[in-house]
Design goal:
Layout: H1 2-21, E1 26-28, E2 33-38, E3 41-46, E4 58-67, E5 73-75, E6 80-83, E7 89-91, H2 95-101, H3 104-115, E8 129-130, E9 151-153, E10 157-166, E11 176-182, E12 187-193
Parallel strand pairs: 8-10
Antiparallel strand pairs: 1-2, 2-3, 3-4, 4-10, 5-9, 6-7, 6-11, 11-12
Amino acid sequence: MGIKHIHLSLAAAALATSLLAAGPSVSKVSTYGFAGRSGEVTLLVDMDAARYRGGEKYVPLLIYLGHTERKTLHADRTTFTLTDPSGARHPLPAPEVVTEAYGPNLVSNDYTYLGRLPDYGSMLFLANVQIPRVAFFANPSGPPRILYDKVELPNRTFFIALLYFPNPMGKASGTYTLTYDDPQSGTRIEVPFAIPWAP
């Protein structure tokens, strides 16, 4: 019985580790944040705001992207896609589509909510310089007010941005995957995660 108990305990620990780690290049860095790494490139995805938007047509994800490699990364509206639990892949929508279907008030509320949270993500980029004012979706009632969605990231830089993706499945359980794919630098990172939807 003692040996069986030990084996069960080890199996449970292994399962818990696999659920948290989600793979060798992905780690859980906070309650709602997962970081994926490819070489010296890091993509952090935070779904703290997303968990409150399960009933909306779009879901917000806060991201951090940075690196310390000897090359320049590129980020624009085509480099990010979200795969939902059904396997459907969603590109970034146009800003005006989100404003109309999601609503300017919700966008502003998301920016306000995220601005009040601890900025734990920047701790992963202490050796980097932040590129300011990056905005794939502008804030209707505060900064960032102007779109800045074609970004070059030289060595030792990073940026923070709020992304929106279609959410046709509502409060779906299962795995979502955010993909960053930059053909110009040959960099691709996939970050799988689950969204703990609020009641």
